[in-house]
């Protein structure tokens, strides 16, 4: 996956960049108040006052879910320490402990990275500080700002969910909306700013990057993958995801389309992202 992201960044950077448009560098107060979230690789300590048998130190696994004594599975990934402590307190007091005073602390943070792709001055990977809230607009500013041909209305954050799917979080285009609805970033988020009249192909393809949408004929999912050099050897061809800003992700069986058994080969719209996941077998 790391190599795919590097290839994606290289493909986007090769497009060059025109004059950048300034963006607001700091998040508003409402967003600054958001608490940092835990992530896979973090070393977390959980204490329950006067119950040393419930003390637990764990490193959050990639799957996110871990077992806690008495109550079973908990999900620390993507949550604040206060939020997790509140859940543990509620579940422990539901038939196990009369008064549960729970504290959760992160004793060691794992490295965090986000990626800014598309119509920005310098497409790049950026470190994410776990103790500071970073928003999509801040990340765009750190990557050189928007280029003149940026499709601001289609900008989105693409995030992997717990089930391995990708979800789209639109980045508000208006300054008023950004004051309260800018997207707070999480580790491994992709901030994608399409170019006007283009879609984007990423993941397990030979040449990830933007695809121009012709005006005289439709550009479909399978054709966009073909234009990106085709699948690589590790591509999961039956689980390709079409991600559209504001509409979430849709799974497309491209292997069925290529064999003539698929019912529909969706046409791409400006700002769409085609993500080809990696086969885990």
Topology:
Elements: H1 2-13, E1 20-21, H2 29-32, E2 43-48, E3 56-59, E4 66-68, E5 72-74, H3 81-92, E6 102-108, E7 113-118, E8 124-127, H4 136-142, E9 146-147, E10 156-160, E11 166-170, H5 175-181, E12 190-193, E13 198-203, E14 209-212, H6 221-227, E15 240-244, E16 248-252, H7 254-258, E17 273-276
How does CATH name the architecture of the largest domain? Roll
Instruction: Characterize the largest beta sheet: strand count, sense, and whether it forms a barrel.
Output: 5 strands, mixed
Q: Considering DSSP H and I runs of 4 or more, what fraction of the residues is helical?
A: 10-25%
Number of strands: 17
Q: Can you describe what's shown?
A:
The protein is of the alpha+beta class. The protein has helices spanning 2-13, 29-32, 81-92, 136-142, 175-181, 221-227, 254-258; strands at 20-21, 43-48, 56-59, 66-68, 72-74, 102-108, 113-118, 124-127, 146-147, 156-160, 166-170, 190-193, 198-203, 209-212, 240-244, 248-252, 273-276. The protein folds into 2 domains: 2-34 and 112-276, Roll (Outer membrane lipoprotein wza fold like); 43-108, wza like domain (wza like fold, 2-Layer Sandwich). The chain contains 7 helices and 17 strands. The strands form 5 sheets. The protein has a 5-stranded mixed sheet with strand order 8-7-12-10-11, sandwiched between helices. A 5-stranded mixed sheet has the order 14-13-17-15-16. A hairpin with a 5-residue loop joins β7 (113-118) and β8 (124-127). The longest helix is centred in the first third of the chain and has 12 residues, at 2-13. Mean pLDDT is 84; it is low at 1-24.
